[in-house]
Automatic annotation (TrEMBL), chain A:
Xref: Gene3D superfamilies: 3.40.50.920, 3.40.50.970, Pyruvate-ferredoxin oxidoreductase, PFOR, domain III
Pfam families: PFOR_II (PF17147), POR (PF01558), POR_N (PF01855)
Keywords carried by this UniProt record: Oxidoreductase
UniProt source species: freshwater metagenome
InterPro entries for the chain: 2-oxoacid/accept_OxRdtase_asu, PFOR_II, Pyruvate:ferred/Flavod_OxRd, Pyrv/ketoisovalerate_OxRed_cat, Pyrv_Fd/Flavodoxin_OxRdtase_N, Pyrv_flavodox_OxRed_cen, THDP-binding, Transketo_C/PFOR_II
Name of this chain's protein: Unannotated protein
Gene Ontology molecular function terms on file: oxidoreductase activity, acting on the aldehyde or oxo group of donors
UniProtKB/TrEMBL annotation, chain B:
Organism: freshwater metagenome
MF GO annotations: oxidoreductase activity, acting on the aldehyde or oxo group of donors, iron-sulfur protein as acceptor; thiamine pyrophosphate binding
The keyword Oxidoreductase is annotated on this UniProt entry: yes
Domain Thiamine pyrophosphate enzyme TPP-binding: 52-199
Family annotation (Pfam families): TPP_enzyme_C
Alphabetically ordered keywords of this record: Oxidoreductase
Protein name, entry field: Unannotated protein
Biological process terms in GO annotation: cellular respiration
Amino acid sequence: MSLDQVTIRFAGDSGDGMQLTGDRFTMDTASLGNDLSTLPNFPAEIRAPQGTVHGISSFQLHFADHHVQTPGDAPDVLVAMNPAALKANIKELKRGATIIVDKDEFTTRNLSKVGYATNPLEDGSLESYKIHAVGLTSLTVAALSELSLTRKEAERSKNMFALGLLTWMYHRPTESTENFLKAKFATKPEILAANLLAYKTGWNYGETTEDFAVSYDIGKAKMPAGKYRNISGNTAMAYGLIAASQRSGLQLFLGSYPITPASDILHELSKHKKFGVITFQAEDEIAAVGSALGASYGGALGITTTSGPGVALKSEMIGLGVMLELPLIIIDVQRGGPSTGLPTKTEQADLLQVMFGRNGESPAVVLAPSHASDCFAIAIEAARIATTYRVPVFILSDGYIANGSEPWMIPDIDSLPDLHVEFAKTQENFMPYLREPKTLARPWAIPGTKGIEHRIGGLEKADKTGEISYDPANHDFMVRTRAAKVAGIEVADLEIDDPSGEAELLVLGWGSTYGPIASAIEVLRASGEKVAQTHLRHLNPFPKNLGEILQKYPKVMVPEMNLGQLAMLLRSQFLKDVISLNQVRGLPFTTAEIADSIKAVLHG
Amino acid sequence: MADIALTKKDFTSEQEVKWCPGCGDYSILSTMQIFLPELGIPRENIVFVSGIGCSSRFPYYLETFGMHSIHGRAPTIATGLAISRPDLSVFVITGDGDSLSIGGNHLIHALRRNIELKILLFNNRIYGLTKGQYSPTSEQGKITKSTPAGSLDSPFNPISLALGAEASFVARSVDSDRKHLTEVLRAATAHKGSALIEIYQNCPIFNDGAFDSVKDPSTKGAALLQMVHGQAIKSETHGVIRENGSLKLVELVNTNEADLIIHDAHNPDPSYAFALSRLSASELDHVPVGIFRDVARASYSAQVNTQISDIIAKDGAGDLHKLLNSGDTWTVE
């Protein structure tokens, strides 16, 4: 049977391997040529109590024969490894959705743990869904009985049984997952054999039992010709930083302190020492950014990665970066806040923090990737601005972009911008704050260069000479100059997507809301609505044509996963009374909620 | 090596020195300016990084590269610089408030990693720049602006702290003793890895006379326990013997010279140097000066760069095209 798109959610205990199962299904789906988007969703606890609703980890994948913008609003298929997984996810399913459950886990004890008085598989409460109650645990254990594994060890392979079954249902190829397992368990032949056998048994179960009468084809998506791979935001960010280092000839120095959901960038970069990459796991967030700034001072591409709480700790050092006018890249993978907040959930509420969260007039550049693979390009853009203008640059990613993945057309290396930079050379009467007239950047004057020995610091400096100055007029001048430098940074103009040219409403987003907004607008346009869309990747400075665009449209709607932070900036800078659409549930917007809100504005 | 021999003048910047008259920082600066030419390192390859406090103005007065950073964080900036630029000689200038209070975390981690940094801790046992509050090395009961009834805090012993943090080179000297301080600087700069030098430094405005016992000609001979590798540890009146598994201060008149400890700065057992560090208390009647510990340990900065070069030697330099095309890929026609 042929389908044009499917959304599947795998859900189980934190230790059930749902993220791995989802990842593998994603890779197999990507290699088949479907377009896709993913949404991993997991608790902050590493092994939350088993069988509880709050301990459920899930992975959602939306794949289609056409362009996909979001991980899908409501799943068509739920794989629930226990009653808690069913309970946690049932209310988000479409009516008529397919539910595959591990019936072995539906014991009285497990049911009562999550408050099911009766077994939903038997009490008729799931009548409007297509239920497949499969003994995932018992079938896996039976299949592995020939291997010398304990029951507990054998049970652990049940996620591979489930993956095998889904792989059969949706006609995914099996080689890639088989190769993956072989590489992962190369040194553990027993575990490898168990996983391969469970995977194969799951596939055969679909093929042979009558429980699953139908399987499905989803055709290839029409995507621009090229070579593709699947990539998550954090990996794309790491690759973008390496690319920036290669294109600039600057050594990549990452100073970082582990924090969710940013740590994977540290992990990824740590693997790539052969690019000369230095990763330094510091004693705290302050040391992480301090070491990056020190490396920048020495002529490296200094980078620090963190999340909102880490930015709070780094603020004073970033202020020093503003004063020293050195390149520095600060990647904030945003999560729910304030304080520790929701470490594993997504949010966009650090915009005003990175704009204004430092003492004094302390302008910094702010960029935001629009989707997972855009992290690659935004990292290169951050390096371009940081090294050209010698200024701290923030990148605001978020948990959704960081962990979500999508197909990415691998760029040609030669198409990447040339980021070559010039350091100050040996000269007479060197002045560390004599600026380039065009960019207002001061020289990048690195130690080791004869004849330009000089002292810099956090105290206010005299124009040109860089000597300490408490002169009132000089301070006023320097404050305005630092602001003018950032305001004058050249960034690409904003492009408007307004096919009819008659739209009265512009939807303006930033960061990870791109997918849901684009998806909602696609739906609305299909039903004849006229809506324009544009998306900001540069938040400070804004693109030069933003003001003109805002004035052109009578109505401008700004969806954000915060309480209206971009809206506040737009109102103050452009006196435009934009319409805010806000939610902070720790999850991305759904297509439906944005589409409904747009309709309400259009016809309200 | 520099083309021509440099002199003190070559290391003196044009900046007017602005410490209070009589400040101990003057003599430390002068000693450093006289000492630096001896290293034979070109000026452009020397970097002084400081935090905040009176002592942290130090880099402005040296004709080298310098950064006056933010409070307590100099070791972090210096760490990034030293790791990514192993060709540079990086000094950290800090004070007792800067390195032991707000920046305590960074100090201990720089030392345990053994980053290639020479850290000069100017200890005046007071906050000078903020005009006279007690510091983490102020003696208990000290009356200051913020402790009118006497400070309740137990002070840090910076040497003990550094040794506890696994420092591979730890020494103490006194601001006004140019000869001694120069010897310590010489050994510190020859050492591979981190070196911490505590320098007793007089603040004539807010804590004048704090170190009189080790500076006054009438008392210092008795107070300063000279630690010289291979020689007995002693002052003019006192010596150190081993007793009950630890070290004990004894009067020379009652002691057989042969029982005195012969100093071994390279002793791999840190408890020896730690025991030496405990011989002095807040009152400074008897203070060991010189090098407590100088042991060989792999420098972090060197190891970081070795890891990279080893991997490149084994696998070849990174290829960006290969990296981007790694993993599962597919082609859309």
